[in-house]
Amino acid sequence: KKSTSGLADLIKQYEKEEMEKVYALLDPEWHDEIRLFTEDEFANIVHIDGSIVKKSSEEINQHFNHDNYKPRDGSLVKAVDEICAFVEAYTSNENGISAPELSQAMEHIRGAYLGKKIAGISFDALLSEFG
After folding, report:
1. What is the pLDDT of residues 92-127, one digit of tens each?
2. What are the backbone angles phi and psi of residue 52, rounded to the nearest 5°?
3. CA quadruple 121, 125, 129, 131: dihedral sign
4. Sign of the C-alpha dihedral, residues 10, 13, 15, 18?
């Protein structure tokens, strides 16, 4: 979806419109929390005194990595999402389905995580396991 200009935005807009139909079925007090998972899924957040507060990945892992803060390391969620896309492209290649876009996506993801650690996890080491 990233290889086609504007496609990601189009999908995001469609998801948002469809979620409005779901929100109509839910108690309004749930809307903001559900939006965190559907519209701002890669935000680094914690809950402090009933409020949702954005923090850096480092702050979450150093100071707020406790259940009472309901932390979400959005950087970690995004990295895992991209690693899944990498594995999907890798598996396609391994099974004989190849396209320049898949190879480009794999190299882009590999480059994005070169030397990068998130929450103490070395993602380039993980990606190096895939030849």
Report:
1. 999 999 899 899 999 999 999 999 999 999 998 899
2. -90, 125
3. positive
4. negative
Give the C-alpha separation, 92 to 34, whole Å: 33
C-alpha pair distances (Å), 5 with each of 8, 11, 35, 125: 8, 12, 25, 30
Q: Which residue has the tokens 């099974």?
A: 95
Going by C-alpha positions, the residue among 65, 42, 63, 46 that lies closest to residue 54 is: 46
For residue 114, the 8-state DSSP code is T
- Asked whether the CA dihedral 61, 62, 64, 66 is positive or negative, the reply is positive
At 28, which amino acid appears? P
Using alpha carbons, list the distances in angstroms from residue 14 to 1, 17, 107.
Answer: 14, 5, 29
